[in-house]
Design brief:
This protein is α+β, with helices and mostly antiparallel strands. The chain has three helices and five strands, in the order E-H-H-H-E-E-E-E. The chain has one domain: Roll (Thiol Ester Dehydrase, Chain A). Belongs to the enoyl-CoA hydratase/isomerase family.
């Protein structure tokens, strides 16, 4: 069954989602699912030796959370494209705020700017093109 396309208007702020605080278990579960066992994601001493304050989450974890959020809002079948840029690391104990703004619309699609932030710091940003109702 296909869900109805959503109506979006340029300038519209989308409903936000909060995720966290991020735990070591969240990171380990994602590593197991994706096979990313880089020690930056599970070994605090290794992460500190690399110049980080401690273990960080893999960027694809935040990218996946952001993708799931926009897909939940518009319906995955209406998500035409999605791209992200990693801006800063996500550490254990931090809480993500996912949000977005409709940048523009045309007859049947909208471009949405999306981002995940921790306070005022952008962790990941990107764009999504979605099908909309006319």
């Amino acid at each position: 069954m296909t869900r109805a396309q959503v109506a979006l208007d340029a300038g519209q702020q989308l409903e936000t989602r909060t995720i966290g605080p991020i735990t070591q278990t969240d990171i380990v579960r994602f590593a197991g699912a994706g096979g990313d066992f880089n020690p930056l994601h599970h070994d605090p001493d290794y992460a500190r030796a690399a110049g980080l304050p401690g273990v960080i989450a893999m960027g694809q974890m935040q990218a996946g959370m952001l993708a799931a959020w926009i897909a939940d809002l518009v319906g995955v079948e209406n998500l035409v494209s999605y791209s992200v840029r990693f801006a800063s690391p996500l550490a254990i104990g931090e809480t993500l705020e996912l949000g977005g703004t409709v940048a523009s619309t045309d007859d049947d699609t909208a471009e949405v700017t999306v981002q995940a932030t921790v306070g005022d710091r952008v962790v990941i940003s990107g764009t999504a093109r979605v099908r909309i109702s006319g």
